[in-house]
């Protein structure tokens, strides 16, 4: 949606997963962003179906977790890193469904896919069974090392809400562990717009390593730097680093879990980090 290109679509079935303020360099204000989603909803074909995450300020078929949504996940438990749960639909209750991708945000996305598919396919038991086969996509809570002594996860998270989701997923799947977060901010405008939210989200981690802002399509904004963000993070164990220092600084933090996050070119460092840490351990 970042450049309003989704307004060129006219789908039979659509889903809105989030309307969080973002891409304000394009939309200008949060209100304008929400307006664009309402315009998108109006572009559905006649008799089209719109699914929305429960709580969003727009009408549609709702989905959610442990709430009163039309499509609702209930009775969640975690067994060996796998979610096991029931799905309540407007027509039936499907029990003991399994989903292997960690994180409630990923679980919500799986439910959204199920709810969308069920608008076109009547065999809901087959759809529910297919959820267990989903292996995820690259850079979305991707495990690169999963050993007793170290876990390394890489994620595309580049918005405070996404960083929160990654943190919560790690804590749910790996309680009582320490976490190092390596974060590369993406866009000067996003960093400026959400500086306080970024600081609060990153402060939750045990060790925070910041890289310089990845500019993408933007020119620098005066005063908007990773050093500015670093100063806002209420955490004594934090540092702004160059990517040449990355592996050594990660080792210095000595955490149980490493998470790298960002939408820039930090993904190019993943293989190098993985190889260096695997060799060191």
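Sequence proposed for the structure above (281 residues):
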């Amino acid at each position: 949606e970042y450049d309003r290109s989704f307004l060129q679509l006219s789908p039979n079935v659509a889903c809105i997963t989030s309307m969080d303020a973002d891409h304000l360099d394009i939309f200008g204000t949060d209100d304008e962003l929400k307006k664009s989603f309402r315009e998108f909803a109006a572009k559905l074909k006649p008799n089209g179906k719109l699914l929305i995450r429960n709580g969003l300020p727009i009408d549609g078929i709702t989905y959610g977790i442990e709430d009163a949504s039309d499509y609702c996940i209930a009775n969640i438990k975690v067994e060996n890193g796998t979610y096991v749960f029931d799905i309540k639909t407007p027509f039936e209750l499907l029990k003991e469904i399994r989903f292997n991708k960690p994180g409630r945000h990923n679980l919500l996305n799986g439910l959204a896919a199920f709810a969308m598919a069920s608008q076109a396919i009547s065999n809901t038991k087959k759809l529910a069974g297919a959820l267990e086969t989903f292996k995820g996509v690259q850079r979305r809570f991707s495990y690169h090392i999963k050993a007793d002594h170290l876990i390394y996860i890489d994620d595309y998270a580049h918005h405070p809400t996404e960083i929160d989701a990654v943190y919560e997923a790690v804590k749910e799947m790996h309680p009582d562990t320490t976490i190092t977060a390596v974060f590369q901010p993406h866009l000067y405008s996003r960093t400026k717009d959400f500086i306080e939210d970024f600081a609060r989200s990153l402060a939750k981690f045990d060790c925070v390593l910041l890289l310089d802002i990845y500019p993408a399509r933007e020119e620098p904004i005066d005063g908007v730097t990773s050093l500015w963000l670093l100063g806002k993070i209420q955490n004594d164990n934090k540092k702004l680093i160059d990517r040449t220092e990355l592996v050594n600084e990660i080792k210095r933090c000595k955490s149980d879990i490493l998470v790298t996050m960002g939408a820039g070119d930090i993904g190019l460092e993943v293989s190098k980090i993985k190889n260096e840490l695997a060799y060191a351990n």
